[in-house]
Amino acid sequence: GWHAGVIGIVAGRLRERFDRPACVVALDGGIGKGSGRSVPGVALGAAVIAAHQAGLLINGGGHAMAAGFTVEAPKRDALRDFLADQIDRALGGEVPAPSLGLDGALEVAAVTPDLLALLERLGPYGAGNARPRFAVAQARIVNAQPVGTDHVRCILTGPDGTGRLKAIAFRAAGTPVGEALLAARGLPLHLAGQLRLDEWQGVESAQLIIDDVANVGGIG
Q1: Which residue has the higher pLDDT, 215 or 201?
Q2: What SS3 string covers the chain?
Q3: Could you report the per-residue pLDDT of 66-99, keeping only the tens digit for each?
Q4: Chain centre to alpha carbon of residue 82
Q5: Strand partners, 208
Q6: b vs e for 61-97, b when ≥16 Cβ sit within 10 Å of the residue's Cβ?
Q7: Does the N terminus or the C terminus of the chain have fewer Cβ atoms within 10 A?
Q8: How confident is the prediction for the chain on average, in pLDDT?
């Protein structure tokens, strides 16, 4: 009963939560509209194309990290088994290991609107040109608090107290990332995330969208 317009978002959330390829199908009158999101190492689009060629789909296609398809309701189980087999072969029977690629390292004081303007010149960003992800080492959590329904917002400074940077971890409340941020209380953490421009009351500032954290001196 879900609207087909939201299933891509749901598939993406499932992929983020479980670090597995995920497909979601919305049924309407015996026909299902499907959307899938993948993980590095699994070319989901190729698996969906193979399912179409095998007669399991009305149509379908995509690229390595995302796919869309249309399936008749009675063929859902066969499609699930087919995709599971394709993905298992792609992984060589191994369980996918979560990975987080980094494009560089920055100090808190180096993150400015001017830097973001420079990074935007590398766009547009998309499946073939991912937005850069940076490590911010030994950032001290000046303040961290829950916001909205399940987000965690922070203010960061450098290890020597220089610079200020806003940061937010979306949907992190109740997760290891959110708990680590809320428990830091002035202690340093290694952070990884993407930089975005935040505008509030006409004032522009840089913001880190936090993807992951690690304790200084070891993996958290």
Answers
A1: 215
A2: CCCCCCHHHHHHHHHHHHCCCEEEEEEECCEEEEEEECCCCCCHHHHHHHHHHCCCCCEEEEECCEEEEEEEHHHHHHHHHHHHHHHHHHHCCCCCCCCCCCCEEECHHHCCHHHHHHHHCCCCCECCECCCCEEEEEEEEEEEEEECCCEEEEEEECCCCCCCEEEEECCCCCCHHHHHHHHHCCCEEEEEEEEEEEEECCEEEEEEEEEEEEECCCCC
A3: 999 999 999 999 999 999 999 888 888 777 777 7
A4: 26
A5: 167, 195
A6: ebebbbbbbebeeebeeebeebbeebbeebeeeeebe
A7: N
A8: 90
pTM: 0.70
- pLDDT, one tens digit per residue, over 104-159 is 999 999 998 889 989 989 888 876 788 899 999 999 999 999 999 899 999 999 99
Here the tokens at position 35 are 């959307």
Phi–psi pair at 79, nearest 5 degrees = -65, -45
One-letter identity of residue 167: A
